[in-house]
Amino acid sequence: GENVEQHPSTLSVQEGDSAVIKCTYSDSASNYFPWYKQELGKRPQLIIDIRSNVGEKKDQRIAVTLNKTAKHFSLHITETQPEDSAVYFCAAPKRGNMLTFGGGTRLMVKP
Amino acid sequence: DTAVSQTPKYLVTQMGNDKSIKCEQNLGHDTMYWYKQDSKKFLKIMFSYNNKELIINETVPNRFSPKSPDKAHLNLHINSLELGDSAVYFCASSQESLNEQYFGPGTRLTVT
Questions:
Q1: Which of B42, B48, B90 sits opposite A98 (nearest CB)?
Q2: Which of A24, A41, B34, B87 could make an SS bond with A72 (beta carbons 3.0 to 4.6 A apart)?
Q3: End-to-end CA distance of chain B
């Protein structure tokens, strides 16, 4: 089965700084890597995803990079804002169409 | 208007009881899921279901069973509730697998 390790578990940055969250996975056949954001008391929501045929994807201040050889992928948030404060989850497929989620990273952006 | 809805939002019950959580999606998606999020915020897949196949995470006790009356609904039945079942349960759906999943608002289950 797929194991997904996520680091760090907590991350505190100053507003305007960048934040990077890293995940590693174990199944070399995995081909889909989403990132979800969960605000306090809310549901998880997809913010960006990447498939194994590309190495990087950007959407405004958010980017994801994928290194298939090393089996890790990272979320990059630039120019962080207080509203970026949330728990972020990476995920990778398990048994075809089920996602295994990382342990989560609590990001705190200090104004 | 809500894409994925769950009822109830809160559920408090005693050990040993049997309870159900309902989930409905109006997105026309063909795959639905149930997740458990514990107090440490770990999000764990329990089931994946489309009209062809039910996939069960091997760690899920057989006291938990999903039931789908139609393509838009996937309800979660839990028998003989235990203290450790206390968590937030999220339903989700997607169009085919390995695509964006839309989560419901969650059901906070408390077993006393």
A1: B48
A2: A24
A3: 34
